[in-house]
Design a protein that fits this description.
It is a single chain. The chain is α/β, with parallel strands linked by helices. The protein has a domain of 200 residues: TIM Barrel, CATH 3.20.20.150. The protein contains nine helices and ten strands. The strands form two sheets. Strands 1-2-3-4-5-6-7-10 form an eight-stranded parallel barrel. Strands 8-9 form a two-stranded antiparallel ribbon. The protein starts with 8 loop residues before the first strand and ends with a helix. Bound molecules: zinc ion (ZN) (2 copies). The site of one zinc ion has 4 residues, from loops.
């Protein structure tokens, strides 16, 4: 295999038509690695993964060399919900997604920590921590690391400060099964600067102090359609938004991040995948 220059780059790819299709899309989009949902992201339930489908999935990885670095949970899940029925439904759905990732041998699953929907941050964060410990207790032989994603802080979303993510990880007993996903658009919208090299350094120091760089397993590479500190989550093509190209240059050349897969979640034509090809070209061109 040719020597790789810089980190592994990829994009979130659709599983429409079957999980194995995400691998083929990743290859067409020139991904080294991909993120994918492990089931429909707008439904609670999922059809069982049959052996035939799993075999096709592993064969596609073997044939293309495209790996799956992470999955992403359904947007319905909210383990911070103050409504007991929704909280329980979310916990069950999260457990199912962890089990599916184990079947698919996907090493990470990214989740937004949750929303308190009105009863306050402290109560919401406490529910998340309790539900995470209950989750890891209930899973047997779990090999998938659950990654809490830094959020933009829209509405009552939790996890928009590094301190909140660090607080949650601190409270999880199964330390080897928990981690963090940094999304450039989210942290920029939440008020962490990334573009000026000095400010970037300070942001990463804050990350390390509050969470610990060792817990960082995946980076989502998204520019932002909204201004710095807007707390709005709208992804833009690399270099075309308010974050700008220099932030991405800082990240892809950060020596501490060379082993962290960097994944696009930017808008695209799902047929041609042309925007993924272009954004990946831009990211790779930044590697010094
Ligand atoms: Zn996300
Ligand atoms: Zn993201």
């Amino acid at each position: 295999m040719a020597k790789r220059n810089g980190p592994l780059f990829g994009a979130h790819e659709s599983i429409a038509g079957g999980v194995f299709n995400a691998i083929e899309r990743g290859q067409r989009a020139t991904c080294d690695t991909i993120q994918m949902f492990n089931k429909s992201n707008s439904q609670w339930r999922a059809k069982k993964l049959e052996t035939k489908e799993l075999d096709k999935f592993f064969a596609a990885i073997e044939a293309t060399g495209v790996t799956v670095s992470t999955s992403h949970t359904s947007y319905l899940i909210n383990i911070a919900s103050p409504k007991p029925d929704l909280e329980e439904k979310s916990w069950e759905a999260l457990k199912l997604e962890m089990e599916r990732c184990n079947l698919l041998k996907i090493p990470n699953l990214v989740m937004h920590p949750g929303s308190h929907t009105g009863d306050g941050e402290e109560k919401g964060l406490t529910r998340i921590a309790e539900n995470l410990n209950r989750l890891f207790d209930a899973l047997t032989d779990n090999r998938c690391c659950l990654l809490l994603e830094c959020t933009a802080g829209q509405g009552s979303n939790l996890g928009y400060t590094f301190e909140q993510i660090g607080w949650l990880i601190d409270r999880v007993e199964a330390k080897e099964q928990i981690g963090c996903c940094l999304d450039t658009c989210h942290v920029f919208a939440a008020g962490y600067p990334l573009s000026d090299p000095k400010e970037y350094k300070a942001t990463m120091k804050q990350f390390d102090d509050s969470i610990g760089i060792d817990y960082l397993k995946i980076i989502h590479m998204n520019d932002s359609k909204k201004e710095f500190g807007s707390r709005r989550d709208r992804h833009e093509h690399i270099g075309e938004g308010f974050i700008g190209i220099e932030a991405f240059r800082n990240i892809v050349n950060d020596k501490r991040l060379q082993e962290i897969p960097m994944i696009l979640e930017t808008p695209k034509d799902e047929d041609t995948l042309a925007e993924d090809v272009e954004n990946l070209k831009r990211l790779r061109s930044l590697v010094a």
